[in-house]
Amino acid sequence: TGDGSGSINVFPNPTDGMLNITGLAEDAILTVMNLQGRELWVERQKAEGLLTLKMANHKPGIYFIKIQQNEETIFRKVVLK
To answer: Is the CB of residue 65 less than 8 Å from the CB of residue 35?
Structure first.
């Protein structure tokens, strides 16, 4: 697709509190949702590179990560905590 989505990496998965996401482009929009589909937070990436999410305050369970770029979803991932 040429959008670089193949280089996005989410680790560690499962996580115990800190979740790293690499390969994000500037202005990518990251959304984290719970199992019911409720958005827990939405963040716009300010620069290319690494983003670290602090999930320590969230209950153990299944979370969904969606990354959008240019109004198109380019990446989806299930994360276990």
So the answer is: no
